Prior knowledge:
alpha+beta; D-Amino Acid Oxidase, Chain A, domain 2; three-stranded antiparallel sheet
Amino acid sequence: MHAKAYDSARDVVLLEADTVGFGASGRNGGFALGSLTHGIENGLARFADELPALERLGRDNFEGFRGDIERHGIDCDLEPSGDLSVALEPHEVESLEEGSELFGRFEHQFELFDQAGIRGEVASPIYLAGLWDKTDAAIVDPAKLAVGLADAARKAGVRIHERTPATKIEDDGAGLRVLSPTGHVRAERVLLATSAYPPLLRAIRRYVVPVYDYVLVTEPLSPTRRESIGWRRRQGIGDCANQFHYYRLTKDERILWGGYDAVYRYGGPVGAHLDDDEAIFAKLSQHFFTTFPQLEGVRFSHRWGGAIDTCSRFSVFFGSAERGRVAYAVGYTGLGVVSTRFGARVALDLLYGRATEATRLRYVRSKPVPFPPEPLRSGVIQLTRNRLDAADRNAGRRGVWLRTLDRLGLGFDS
């Protein structure tokens, strides 16, 4: 859609391996956040000198995201209700206080809750404090958003071919060809947005690992059950642990509940056979009723899993190949609902050689620390997950392994 906006005469073809909204595009948690750096703290750790510009660009992008939805009449249940972080352990209360200082420094509107305040906001007996970020944060139905954006792209003249996986890019001397099992597309330039799926460029494989995340969705809550949890201002919620849960309300008063286990499997396979995991769903259910014991007896009507394109800096990175005729934007690490808009625009600028404020940033020009090859990759990731769990059980104290990763610039801090 943005490619057509830059040049309405340009012929734009989208190859979709399955259907629009398949995978992370339609099955993410539905958190629409303006940050381009996976939060201020992560941004300060990696791009402190550029963070004021990145915060401003993220804010502009969030407003552009909302403008796109309004301009194209996309019905996606967008609610600008903010993002609420909750502390479940005493050491996390201090973390929220530090977070509020950062929000003030970067001109976010926010509200900090003590124990009584947060339990009055959302009725959970395990909450100790809360921090509500009211700036550039919303919830959305991601599947409706994906379908609405596809419809807008078609109206702009984009040709979308579903169930047409791109399997290879080659230069045949006359130009680029994108191959598919059913044919090929000849292209002057190619933009890759492969997310956690196997990339078409070998260079990307060093930087991205597919990490599986799982979600439960309740049946619609009765008025009595809905009243028992409060949550009248309908914020998206996430807790402060390394292994954290995220959850939100849907338009029809269900609760979407996900997170905690981030699962990497040896070799990084991605496929529909991995979308189910009974043990993880059972754990999610247990944690749900620990958080909301007053909802005991509520049933879960839907469940799913899917892969997240994780990189070591926890935010999108960019690159090019084939003498600048191929560009890519990958590695969003679970916060791509809004930042994919920014990523697409920057990748298009790189593809067409347009110099902008964003393309001059080290954030765009640099790469994350690569992951090691297997079998070391799997060992490092599993050890890190184990140590993150240990930190959660040890008042947040990061041991030797996590401190070493911090010094190396790896993003295992959320």
